[in-house]
């Protein structure tokens, strides 16, 4: 019997490859549900109920907690303070990180060990970073006091962590010091991916220094730079360890960020409902602030492609 025409042969079932793909994806989906969806449902449920640390989901209160939180000037101020802090710290880290990456790119080509030295802050636990910078700022004998003494100034002339004006910038300096190497590493990786022939051709055409960076290097790494800024922005919103170790939210409320308010509400006052509401408000704030950065990152990546 002659073989059936090719057009009449039944197509192979794609179920095997589809099942294999589903099998490989299943652990990721399960992890996303356990680590992402369940906490979100828990927080949403706690925000509309009377919930304590030991007895969650008691009486339904609806939007009462939201109204109370939005009417609390200290908490609203902490949310605004978190947004300003995150944008400022991310911008400072980005600027310093790009400069460090450019310097690192040149140093590595000459066989330097600068990369290892720059990554040391990133490898240091946040608790240790907070303790280290608290000692640096100590007016009784810290590094800052020693430097002031060398210049003939009183050792306690500058005490950032005791000032309502300078305490948050003091925390920000420690934050920038710790996470700038991450930006430098990401940008450095992008610099390594540049086409050396294009760079050489630009140099032959007379492009050097700032002109070379602005016309050739920056357009090539703009997508990575924007993505690095997004990552740094999210990390800045999450800062807690440094505030806890260096200032405990003080003096006054000057360094009380939203993350610290969540800690106070949940683990000091045992008010899980209040902490859940602040968490949701912080999530909305992070989304509003980061959406333009995400849009810019996608636009730059499409342009480069």
From TrEMBL:
One example of a Gene Ontology biological process annotation: transmembrane transport
Top-rank lineage group of the source organism: Bacteria
TM stretches of this protein: 23-46, 83-104, 111-129, 166-192, 212-235, 275-296
Main subcellular location: membrane
The keyword Repeat appears for this protein: no
Membrane topology: Multi-pass membrane protein
Protein's cellular compartments: Cell membrane
GO cellular component, one term: plasma membrane
Membrane is among the record's keywords: yes
Entry keywords, A to Z: Cell membrane, Membrane, Transmembrane, Transmembrane helix, Transport
Domain (ABC transmembrane type-1): residue spans on this chain: 79-293
Family: Belongs to the binding-protein-dependent transport system permease family.
Protein name: Sugar ABC transporter permease
């Amino acid at each position: 019997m002659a073989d059936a025409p090719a057009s009449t042969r039944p197509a192979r079932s794609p179920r095997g490859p589809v099942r294999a793909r589903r099998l490989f994806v299943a652990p990721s989906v399960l992890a996303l549900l356990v680590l992402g969806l369940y906490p979100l449902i828990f927080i949403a449920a706690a925000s509309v109920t009377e919930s304590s640390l030991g007895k969650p989901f008691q009486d339904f209160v609806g939007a009462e907690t939201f109204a109370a939180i939005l009417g609390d000037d200290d908490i609203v101020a902490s949310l605004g303070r978190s947004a300003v802090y995150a944008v400022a710290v991310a911008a400072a880290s980005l600027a310093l990180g790009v400069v460090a990456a450019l310097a690192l790119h040149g140093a590595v080509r000459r066989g330097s060990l600068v990369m290892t030295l720059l990554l040391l802050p990133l490898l240091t636990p946040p608790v240790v970073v907070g303790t280290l910078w608290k000692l640096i700022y100590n007016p009784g004998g810290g590094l800052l006091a020693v430097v002031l003494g060398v210049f003939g100034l009183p050792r306690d002339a500058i005490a950032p962590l005791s000032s309502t004006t300078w305490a948050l910038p003091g925390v920000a300096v420690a934050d920038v010091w710790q996470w700038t190497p991450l930006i430098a590493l990401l940008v450095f990786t992008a610099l390594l991916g540049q086409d050396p022939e294009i760079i050489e051709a630009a140099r032959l055409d007379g492009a050097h220094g700032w002109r070379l960076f602005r016309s050739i290097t920056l357009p090539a790494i703009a997508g990575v730079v924007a993505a690095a800024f997004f990552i740094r922005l999210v990390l800045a919103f999450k800062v807690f360890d440094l505030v806890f170790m260096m200032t405990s939210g003080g003096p006054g409320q000057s360094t009380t960020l939203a993350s610290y308010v969540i800690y106070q509400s949940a683990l000091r006052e045992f008010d899980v409902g209040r902490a859940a509401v602040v968490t949701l408000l912080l999530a909305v704030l992070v989304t509003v602030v980061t959406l333009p950065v995400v849009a810019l990152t996608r636009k730059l990546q499409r342009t480069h492609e």
